[in-house]
Each structure stands twice: as structure tokens, then as C-alpha cells.
Amino acid sequence: MIQIEKALQDQVEIISNGSVVSPRGFSAGGLFCGIRRKRLDLGWIYSYVPASAAAVYTTNLFKAAPLKVSKESIDQENRLQGVIVNSGNANACTGERGLKDAYTMRDLYAAQMGIEPHLVAVLSTGVIGEFLPMEKIQAGISRIGSVEQPADVVDFEEAIQTTDTCRKSCAVKITIDGKLVSIGGAAKGSGMIHPNMATMLGFITTDAAIDPASLQQALRQVTNKTFNMITVDGDTSTNDMVLIMANGMAENLTLNPSHKEWPKFINALEIVCRSLAKKIARDGEGASRLVEVTVKGALNDQVAAHVAKEVIGSNLVKTAIFGADPNWGRIICAIGYSKQPIDPEKVTVHIGPIKVVENSLPCGFNEEEAKNYLQQENIHILIELNQADGQATAWGCDLSYDYVRINASYRT
Amino acid sequence: MIQIEKALQDQVEIISNGSVVSPRGFSAGGLFCGIRRKRLDLGWIYSYVPASAAAVYTTNLFKAAPLKVSKESIDQENRLQGVIVNSGNANACTGERGLKDAYTMRDLYAAQMGIEPHLVAVLSTGVIGEFLPMEKIQAGISRIGSVEQPADVVDFEEAIQTTDTCRKSCAVKITIDGKLVSIGGAAKGSGMIHPNMATMLGFITTDAAIDPASLQQALRQVTNKTFNMITVDGDTSTNDMVLIMANGMAENLTLNPSHKEWPKFINALEIVCRSLAKKIARDGEGASRLVEVTVKGALNDQVAAHVAKEVIGSNLVKTAIFGADPNWGRIICAIGYSKQPIDPEKVTVHIGPIKVVENSLPCGFNEEEAKNYLQQENIHILIELNQADGQATAWGCDLSYDYVRINASYRT
Asked: Which of A32, A67, A215, B31 is the most exposed place for a label (fewest CB within 10 A)?
């Protein structure tokens, strides 16, 4: 098993400075249209040819208008050629008018690019409950593709941000049927992050040829192990969405689960999504550290995932890590209230290389060494339940003064 | 229905400066035995006669040793005559030795008071994973009842505290069968508060005569509407416990659900528990405000309770309140991810007297007025789901810089 994974890893090459335009046939850009005060706020991705498309959406009952419109676009023939996205305004809780605005935004971009509206997805992120400033958006869209507005993927990555402090992108390449296949991605997200089915905004592009149903299956499978395993604050947004476009320009034989190189594709997609997910967790609002919690030895993978997310989501664990306090008691406590079938006598916990709990009892450890470890930027916590083979990894961040500062004053 | 509730309320009198010793036949005290650095750390309650007893315990899988011992005591004949409790050390995750220590602590107090060990409950609160300093506890217990250590309920209320910033007590009186019946209570709790069955430490005394099974039923019923409806940080502790002792010295006819004045007793007990629960929420670590969320119009009371607790537990709602930001979008978002059967088109939200959302859409409101309201010490949020008659109220607090400060440095 480990050997197979190792072999798959070896077949993937990370593209340095890779992005959503690393795969053939995609362009992306961003501009300032005036929704935010100063920063870029309107972005787009365009594929030269219609691409197979799939998406996963938030489980929040209050789904924002753009999600409904994007879902309608994708459901029509499972293809997309363009994506238009704004930051600064989520177009959520905006009723009929919000829905109309989302359609208009989609149609304006489709007209600008000369493609069918149902080949366009529309996404929004930002403040909830305010109407989109449609005149500004219309003026912005009309500038896309003009000489003054050359497509630059860095502008796209900036235009999708809200409280993010950095751009988040990544790309890899593999060969399928002897053809070079690339997968690229971009994401935004920093607060209100605790996805449950989809998550924040994620954009994946690939030049692989793949049928839409297989693409949806691949995205779902990989999202569950990556984007859905991060949490910043336990809140699942109204606007979370991850979408993928596969334009087939690599000219491989059409991928599906029977294709002998399917596992290689899935693995490469997982690397891209995991990389983006970790970047989102590390950029959690106010975060000073990336925290990775791995649970092994659970009754099954689902149990492991629940326990890992409960620990990574605990405010008390997060504040302890912020304070570089090896407070394993809070880790044990979070495992204990995860409502999972674990054996409370058998738990082992490592903080980095330091074993702090064995058989659910504290083991003598060097407090100073543990404190030093917790001052690093990447913290790893390993929890062994010692029952069976289930495992999972979740990512999150510490809870700092800055989280409170950012969220006590975000809107006003 | 409202008239009945009103009539019940009118029959209850709040005892000014009431406490666990307001009911006849109880004494309580506290002292410093050296577990904490300076503050009182050993407390006790004693009933002159054995009392009917009942308790509810944490749902955390890692139950602390004292809970196991207390449960064994109570299960033996559903009676208690004394309670011994320490702060500064939770005696949790301490294995066989911790269990032995909890038995020893119980036996020492029983011997000191000349009563049977199984009539004693033992509770601990504080740091997880360290062994109790038994010599200090033994020395402390040996001073209980001495001339130098007169019983003072204020000392008890102080001795049970950890990061609490104030004592929490309350008592009421009613008449049952023409006899004066009092119910008193004390509680501690400030962090790791998100109870699920029992909660933090709560101590209720009454001189009512009541059979143990009815007492257990009353405690369960009332706890679910009070202590189990508060949350500070979503963490359910290993040591949460609420216990009640009823010594019968009021000489009423033995209470049970068939007694015509049973609703009056339940109502009085609920007033005591709600008062303590609200004091705990208000004293949440770092809290500057008490937040009350009422949900009405749900399909049933359970749905209402889930929604209320999801909203009160949202870090984003809590930080918005800390910042006096009427960010109703975060309230809507939390309602939306509560996974309850609500109608996403029908929600109305009030922040204090100000309607901010109607039919799930924002209504124009005076931002300045809402900001001013949120600067008060007691915040009330009303959510109307407009589906049926289910309702519930939950209590919590805002999330401040001080929460992070306290929890980034609690242990070390």
C-alpha cells in the first residue's frame, strides 16, 4: 500500500510557480471594478474550448445566489468555458434580486467572451446581505479582454481574496497515455472555514480529457480528503464552492475509473487540492501556525476523520498552540467529546517527535523541548487510537488575538 | 400556558444572598490546602442528615476519576450526606492512581465527618493529567470542622473556582404542602464549557422531601433546559457534573411527579439552575457580555435548541458581538449550517428590539442604533423560524482578546 502511494508520488512533478493557467488552453485575469475600496475585486478564468466541468457546493441551507446559478450552468450539459468571480460582496441572503444579479453577471461575462451563458459559472465572496453593485460589475466585465487589461493569473489570484493575506496557487504535471497532463489550482479562504461538502472558493483546471461524470466523482473523492479536512473556525459559509474544468487539450484517452492511469490522475489532483487546502488553513484568519492532525488506528477512516476534525477545531487546543503550550489534556478532551467509538484506555498522542500520552496516560516528557517544538511554523499532532487501520489527516491553525481583531471589525 | 408559567413564577421568592446553605440543614466551607498557589482550593458541603441525591455527568469519553467515584457513591443507595471538592487539579487522565486518589479523598472526608464513604461525592476541577497532591489534601481535610476553620459558604464558593472571576450562587423559596421549601445552588465554570448531558460543576441543595428517582428526573429535565443550554467555547470537559441533594428537612409530603405541587418545585429548581447557568455564561473566559439566543417557531423544541446552540457557539457571531457589529449575516450563516429542518425563506431575526432580517432578507435598520444596543452588557437575539411552536433559549458570551490570552497561557 505504502509502496503504491510512493510510486504514485514519484510520477508527479510539481510545476514551479504553477497556477490555473499551467494546463494548456486556459487564461485568467483580474481587475479592480470598485466593489472593494482599493484591491482587485473581479476575476475570471477562460478555457479556449468548452471543458468538462464538475463542482461541489456548501451544505449551508442559505446557499448564495451565485451558487444556484453556477449549479444551473453546470447541470445543463456538465461543461464550462468560463468563470467569473467577484470579491467584496457574497451576494448571499439577497433574495430574488440577488438571483437576478447573479444571472446578469453570468450573462454579461458570456456576452463579453462570445460564449453561451450556460458555459459560465459565477462565484461571489465577501459580505453577506448586500446587493451587488451591478453598474460597477458591468463596467468591469466590459474591460475584460481589452488591450488595457491583459490576462495575468496573478491578478486573478488577488481578485478572489477577502481577508486572505497571500495568493494560493499550485500546479503539477503527470503523463497519461504518454501525453503531458497538467493540473492547476487557485483558492481563496481565510475565515468562515469549516467545509462539509464543498468549501470556500477553489478553482481547479486541467488539460486532461475526462468525462464529466468521472470528473465529478474525482472531485468529490479528493475534496473529502483535502478541502473538507480543513477548519479555521467551525463556520461553514453560504458561498463555499470548488469547481474543476477539464478541457481535454492534452489529448490523452478520455479518463474514467477504468483507465489504467486513473489512480495517477486522482493522486495528482489530490496533491493540488491538498496543497491549496493547507495554504488556506495556514492563512486562517489571524493564524501564526499551520497545524496538521493525523489520526491512525481508528475503527475506520470516517472515525479518524471525525476525531481529527474535532481536535483541529477545538478553540482550547488552538489557543494552547498559539501559546506554545504542550497542553495534551485539551487534545485528549477533544478526542473524548468527538462522540466516536474509541477506546478511552488506548490513546497515544505525539506532539511532533515528542510522545506526550501513552495508553491515555501522560508520559514524562521534556516540557521545554515540547514548547520549543510548538514555536515552529508547522505543527504536527499524531493521535493513535490503537484499534484498527482507519486513518485521516486534518489541517487547521492556531487561534490568536488577531483572529478576534479581524472578526470583531470585519464588516464595519 | 403563559398564564400558568406566570402563576408559577409568582409563587417563587428569590432569597437575597441565597446559597447552598439557604435550605435548612446544610453547611458549607472552603480552605486553602496548597494545590493552587494562593487561592482557596478545597471545599465541602455537608447535610445534617443523609439526603436523596442525583447527578448528571459529562458525556466526554475520558471521564475523570472523581466522577467515577461519585457515581459509585450515588448509585449505591441514591443518598449523599457530604461533598468534597478541590480546584487546581482535575484528577483526569490519571489512570489507576487517580482513581485510588479519588477514593482516598472521599474516604478521608467521610472519616473526618464520621459518615459512611458511600454518602460522599468527590469532585475535582483544574489541570488535566497531573496527580493530586494527596498529602496536601489529607492535611486540608483534617482541618475541616476545626475551630480555626468555621464553615463559611463564601469560602466554599471561592474554593471551587478556577479561571472564574466571581462566585456564582443563588437560592429561592416556595411553599409545598404549606411548608417552606428552599432550593440553593453554587456553580463554577468559565472555560471548556459546552455541556452535553451534565456540565461544569454545579451543586444544588434543597430541604424538600423528594424520592431519589423523582429527584433524578427533575434534575435531568431542568439541566437540559439550563446548564445544557450554555456554551462558552464548544469544549465539553472531562469533569462536568451537576449534583443535587434533598435532605427532607422541610417536612413536606414526599415529592414526585404525581404531587399536585410538582410543577411548582420544578419551576423553582429551574429558576435556580438557570440563574447559575447564566452566571457561568456571563463569566465565560474573557467574556465582556452575556448573550441570550431565543429560537421560536421551530418544528419542535429540540430543533430550536440545536439552532440556538449553533448560533451561540459560532466564533464569528461571538467576535461580531465583541466588536458590537450587528453582523446578522453571520447569524443567518450559523442557522444555515445547524443541519436542522428549517425553511431558508422564512427566518426573522431581531437583535434586541431591532428587526434585522425578515423572510431571510435584510430589512433596513438603523446601524447606529444596533451598534449601541450591542454595547450593552446583556445581548438578546431572537430568531423566529415561522414553522411551528418549538422554542428554546441558549446562553453564551462574546469572544474577546482575553479569551485567547487566558487560554494561551492557562497551564504554564
From this structure: A32
Same-domain status, B267 and B363: no
- A337 and A264 in a single domain? The answer is no
Angle B262-282/B212-225 helices, nearest 10 degrees? 40
Is the domain of A64 the same as that of A198? yes
Query: Which residues touch B376 (CB under 8 Å, ≥6 apart)?
Result: B289, B352
A131 in contact with B, Cβ within 8 Å: no
Question: Rounded to an integer, what is the distance from CA A51 to the centroid of its chain?
Answer: 21
Q: Where are the beta strands (DSSP E) in B97-165?
A: 120-127
Residue A1 DSSP one-character state? -
Of B137, B135, B139, the residue nearest B123 (C-alpha): B137
Range of the domain at B50: 2-281
Beta-carbon contacts below 8 Å between A and B:
199
CB neighbours of residue B363 within 10 Å: 13
| Whether ipTM exceeds 0.90 | no
**Residues B275 and B294 grouped into a single domain:** no
Restricting to B residues 363-382, those with a Cβ less than 8 Å away from any Cβ of A are: 367, 371
Q: Nearest 5 degrees, angle CA B186-CA B293-CA B353? A: 120
Q: Are residues B262 and B179 in the same domain?
A: yes
A159/A28 Cα distance (integer angstroms): 11
pLDDT by position in tens, chain B (length 412)? 456 667 777 789 999 999 999 999 999 999 999 999 999 999 999 999 999 999 998 777 888 899 999 999 999 999 999 999 999 998 988 999 999 999 999 999 999 999 999 999 999 998 888 899 999 999 999 999 887 778 899 999 999 998 788 899 999 999 999 999 999 999 988 654 443 332 378 899 999 999 999 999 999 999 988 888 887 655 566 778 899 999 999 999 999 999 999 999 999 999 999 999 899 888 877 788 999 999 999 999 999 999 999 999 888 888 889 989 898 988 988 898 888 999 988 999 999 999 999 998 888 899 899 999 999 999 999 999 999 999 999 999 988 888 787 777 655 4
Q: CATH number of the domain at A110, please.
A: 3.60.70.12
For residues A10 and A2, the answer to whether their CB atoms sit within 8 Å is: no
Check whether residue B388 and residue B298 sit in a common domain. Answer: yes
Chain A: residue whose CA lies nearest to B363:
A129
Closest chain B residue to A91 measured between Cα atoms?
B329
Residues A199, A228: Cα–Cα separation, whole Å: 7
Report how many domains make up chain B: 2
Q: Which helix (H) or strand (E) holds A8?
A: helix A2-10
Task: List the catalytic residue out of B58, B162, B199, B231.
Answer: B199
Contact A361 B192 (CB under 8 A): no
B63, B336, B360: residue with CB nearest A60: B336
Sign of the torsion angle spanned by Cα atoms B376, B378, B384, B385:
positive
The verdict on B29 and B159 lying in the same domain is: yes
Phi, psi (rounded to 5 degrees) for B137: -65, -40
B-chain CB neighbours of A234 within 8 Å are 234, 313-315
Q: Which domain-ending residue is among A282, A314, A341?
A: A282
Whether residue B204 is found in the same domain as residue B179: yes
Tell which of B261, B281, B301 closes a domain: B281
Using an 8 Å Cβ cutoff, are B242 and B199 in contact? Answer: yes
A58, A252 contact by CB (below 8 A): no
- Is residue B254 part of the annotated active site? The answer reads no
Query: Does the distance separating the beta carbons of A332 and B408 come in below 8 Å?
Result: no
Helix (H) or strand (E) holding A357: strand A354-358
